[in-house]
Amino acid sequence: MLPLDGRAARVRFLFPLLLGAAAAVAALSLGPGGPPAGSAADRFVAGQRSTTRTPVGREAAAALRERAAAHRRAIGVDAVASVTVERVEDRFAGLTYDEVVDRNGRGQRLALQRFDLAGRLLAAVRFGGHNPKRLAVVDAAGARSAAERHARALDLRPVGTARVRRGAADEWVVEWPRLVDGVPVPGDGVVVRTWADGTLHTAVRHDRPLAERPDRLIAVGEARRLAGARLAGWFDPRNAGEWQIDGASLAWVAPNDAFEPAGPDAPARVLRLAWVVRVATRGTLAEAIRGLELFLDAGDGRLLGGDVLR
Amino acid sequence: MPTGRRSRRLALALLPALLALSLGAGGARAGFQATIDSNESAFEPPCMGWDDAYPEKMLRAAVSAYTALGYTARGYSGASFTRAHVLARTVGDWGYYVHSHGDNYWHAADGRRYAGFREDGGDCSQAVVYSKDIAAKRAGRATNLVVMSTCHLGESTSTMPGAFGIARKKSEPTEWLGSKFYLGYAGTAYDNDQWTFEQAFWDELRQGMPAGFAFDTALLGTFTHPFDPNWWGTYAYSGRAGPLPPCDRCL
Q1: Does the pLDDT of residue A117 top 90, yes or no?
Q2: Residues 33-92 of B with CB under 8 A from A
Q3: Between β-strands A291-297 and A272-281, what pairing exists: parallel, antiparallel or unpaired?
C-alpha cells in the first residue's frame, strides 16, 4: 500500500488525466456538429451529420448478405472481395435501414444495397460505370424495358405507368410515381436510373407514411384564394404583374420549414394531404425566383411549407 | 494551489478533449481555404415578404462539411457576399460553394453567354458573377471541391467548371484526374431537392466516402421534381483539402 502522501500525490496527478479522458470521451461523442445522433428525441439540425451507423448482429448480417448476393447479377457486379453490413439511422430522412456494401480487392465500393427492417430492398447502387464502352445505346422504350427488368429482378414491384426522361449524366431516369386514390405522392414510388446502354446505375423505392386524410377538404378555389392573399403580402407591389398562380392540385407532401426558419431543418417524415399551389414568375422577379410552391393543408388551409425555384 | 500550477493542470486536463475535438473536426489543413457563399437577402424582407429558410441552413451545412473535410472554411451572405468578394477570395480558394440563382447569363460586352450566379450584396438587386471573371482571377489555378448549388451550372456545356480548372470529364473509380470534383445541377432545381441531395452528399463525404461514391449514394434521396445533379472530376477523390495523392481514403 502506498504511503498516504504518495497516494495523495498520485490522485493529484491522475485526477486531471482522468478528468481529461472523460472530457475527451464527451467531446468525441458530441463531435463538432452538436449532440449525438441516434435517439428518436434528436432533431436533425443543419450542419450536423444525419446518419449514424452501428454493427448488425452476426445472424442478421448473414441473412442480409445472402439476400444481397441474390441481387448481384441484377445489379451487375462480380468479383466481390468483401461485404460489410451496417444498420443506418438517418435522422434527415427519418428512416432506419440496413446497408450492405460489396467491395473489390482494393477495398473500393462496387455496389450498395439498402434493406428495410423487414428485409425488403429499398435501394441499390452500382458504383462507377460512367464511361463504359457502349456497345449499344437504348432509346426511351428500351430504357423503360431495361428499368422494368431491373425493378423485377430486385423485387421493387413498381406500380402504374412509367415515366421516362433523359438525365443529365448520359443516363435514363425511369419513374413509377406513387398514387394514393389517384392523388400523387411526389418523391414516392420507384425510380430506376440506367446508363445509356440500359445497364443499372441506381434503383430506389420510397414509400413514406401518410397522415390521416382530412374528413372534409377545402375547395381548390379556396386554396387559390388563401395562397393569393398570402402572396400579395409577400411580393412587393412593384412586382405585382410579375407573378401569377399557375395551378393548384392535391398531393401528399412533407411539411417543411421553407417559409418558417424556426421549424425543423429536415422535412417531416409523415406526409400530409395538401393543395400544392404553384406560382410562376417573370421579369425582374424571375431574376431572383423562378417559381414557388405553397403547401396548404387540404383540410384547413394552413401553410405546411413549400418549395422555391431560384 | 498556485495559479500557475492550477492552469497547467487545467491545460493537462483539457488537452485530450481538445485533441479529440480537432480529430473529430477532420483537422483543418492550414492554408486550404474554402469559401461558402449563400444569397439570403434576395429571399427575405424587405426583398421578399417571407424569410426563406434554405439559404441559411444550406450555408451552415456546407461550412460544416468543408470544415470537416479539412478546409479553413468561412461562410458569407448579405453584404459580405458580393461579386467583388467572390473575385477577391477565389484566388485563394481550394473549395468553393454557392447557393444562389444561377444561369447562363448574357454578357453584353462579349456578345455571348457565360455560366454565372448572382451575388447577395445585402440588397434586392444582385449583380452576376460570370465564370469568365472567376477564370481570369484564378488563371488556371487548381481547385479541390466545387459545389454550385444553383440552377443550370451542372449542364454539359457549362463554362463554370473550367473557371475552376476542372475539365468536364468523369473518371472511373480506378482513374485519377487529380484531387478535384465539381458538382452542379442541370436545368432547374428546386430547393427541397437540392437540400435533400446535398445533405446526403455531405454526410457520405464526412464518413470518408470519396466524392463520386457520395454523389451516387445521394441520388437515392426523395426528390419531388425532375432533378438532375451532375459532376465532373475524379470519382475516387475524397473531397479533402489539398493536392492529395491518388486514391486518398478510397473506400
Answers
A1: yes
A2: 39, 42-43, 46-54, 56-58, 60-61, 63-64, 67-68
A3: antiparallel
Which of residues 28 through 57 in chain A touch B, CB cutoff 8 A? 28, 31-33, 46-51, 53
Same domain, A169 and A301: no
Q: Read off the CATH number of the domain in which A113 is found.
A: 3.30.310
A292 occurs within a structural domain: yes
Query: Do residues A194 and A58 both lie within one domain?
Result: yes
Does residue A224 share a domain with residue A158? no
Interface residue A61 vs chain B (CB under 8 A): no
- Residue A48: its chain B contacts at CB < 8 A? 64
Spell out the domain ranges in chain B.
29-233
Number of structural domains chain A divides into: 2
The answer to whether the pTM exceeds 0.90 is no
Listed residues A145, A172, A206: the one ending a domain: A206
Whether A91 is in a domain gets the answer: yes
For the stretch A85-96, pLDDT in tens is 999 999 999 999
Same domain, A302 and A202: no
Give CATH for domain B29-233: 3.40.50
The answer, for A269 touching chain B at a CB cutoff of 8 Å, is no
Residue of A nearest to B248 (CA): A108
Spell out where A21-148 has E strands: 51-55, 82-90, 95-103, 109-115, 121-126
Verify whether the Cβ–Cβ distance B173 to A127 is below 8 Å: yes
ipTM of the modeled complex: 0.86
Cis bond before residue B229 (omega within 30° of 0): no
A140 with A257, same domain?
A: no
Task: Print burial letters for A218-231: b (CB count within 10 Å at least 16), e (below 16).
Answer: beeeebbebbbebb
Give the span between the Cα atoms of B151 and A45, in whole angstroms. Answer: 25
Q: Range of A250's domain?
A: 220-309
Range A250-273 average pLDDT: 96
pLDDT tens-place string over residues B102-161: 999 999 999 999 999 999 999 998 999 999 999 999 999 989 999 999 999 999 999 999
- Chain B residues closer than 8 Å to A112 by CB: 217
Determine, yes or no, domain membership for A195: yes
